Amino acid sequence: MPFLKKPLAGPGYIILNILQVMNIIGLLAVIAASTVMLVKTFIISKFFFFDAVSHVITASIAVFLIVSELSLFHSYYARNWPLLSLSSGLVALGMAMVVLGVTLLGNLNKQATSQKSLGLPFWRIVISSGIIILVLGVLNIICNYIFRDPKANVTAREIRALGVVATQSRPSITNPAGLSTGSPKPYLLNRQNTLPSYHSHTEGRASPPRLPLKISSPINLDRSQFQKFERSKTVARPSEAYHPVYSEKF
Questions:
Q1: How far is CA 181 from the centre of its chain?
Q2: Contact 28/66 with Cβ under 8 angstroms?
Q3: Surface-to-core class of residue 52, CB atoms within 10 Å of its CB (0-12 exposed, 13-18 middle, 19+ buried)
Q4: Which of 153, 141, 175 is closest to 5 using CA atoms?
Q5: What are the residue ranges of helices labelled H in 45-167?
Q6: Which residue in 39, 22, 57 sits closest to 129, CA to CA?
Q7: Alpha-carbon torsion (20, 87, 70, 93), positive or negative
């Protein structure tokens, strides 16, 4: 639906920002659910260590995704986690949220985190957090493909951050055949900025010298230093007696 890209850029800015707020709320719910299961695991389960580590990892991933959504360290994410940066879409974020939702709902099958062990109020927190984050992950993936514009090299994150202006903020990168290569990648931009250039930055190039080249004579030439190499004008002819023909007779 290419003809819908421009009309959807304005509403996409509003919808994606609302979805961003919902993402943060859903990830906070994941942290709360992981904390509840962590406490209950210490109380009920005998082999609590590895279960506790899994809950800590789940909560840490949720915190990491919240920081990426808030754009607190955008340069760090652009350099080390490009799939969560502005140059990438929302697919990686959506898939991570789906994995978190499946992990939370999968923990409800354990005895330590069952409805009987957690209690109905805490069990509702866990199951609602899992369902919410799972649905939000699917919505992020769907919205990424709806609001992105691959022809203009604009991702859904850029639409969320800049709106319609995003279509004019980044140039497209094309190969020699004239085909678009998609969004500019960070490693391509780094290579273009760091590799040395062996071409002149001036518009006109100097013309090659014409042949033959005219080379000037040495300055302050002292000809006396070459006199010993010059031939003498009076050269005496050697005696014929020393010729090898005459020497053989003796």
A1: 14
A2: yes
A3: middle
A4: 153
A5: 48-70, 74-80, 91-107, 115-118, 120-147, 156-162
A6: 22
A7: positive
Residues with Cβ within 8 Å of 180's Cβ and at least 6 positions away in sequence, in order, are 150, 151, 153, 172, 173, 174
Beta bridge partners of 174: 180
Q: Which two tokens stand for residue 138?
A: 């699917």
183/123 Cα distance (integer angstroms)? 43
DSSP character string of 4-58: GHHHHHHHHHHHHHHHHHHHHHHHHHHHHHHHHHHHHHHHH-SSHHHHHHHHHHH
CA angle 138, 75, 190 (to 5 degrees): 105
Dihedral sign, Cα of residue 30, residue 36, residue 39, residue 42 = negative
Helices 5-44, 91-107: axis angle to 10 degrees equals 30
Q: What is the pTM of this model?
A: 0.64
Dump pLDDT digits (tens) for 156-188.
888 888 776 665 555 444 443 444 444 444 444
At residue 81, the 3 state secondary structure works out as coil
pLDDT in tens, 18-31: 999 999 999 999 99
Distance, in Å, from the CA atom of 3 to the CA atom of 177, rounded to the nearest integer, reads 26
Instruction: Report whether 27 contacts 133 (CB < 8 A).
Output: yes
User: Which tokens go with 214?
Assistant: 């005219």
Name residue, tokens 């109380």: 43
Dump the DSSP string for 171-239.
---B-TTS-B--SPPHHHHHHHHHS---S-SSSS-PPPPPSSP--PPPSS--GGGGGGGSPPS--PPPP
> What average pLDDT score do residues 27-43 get?
90
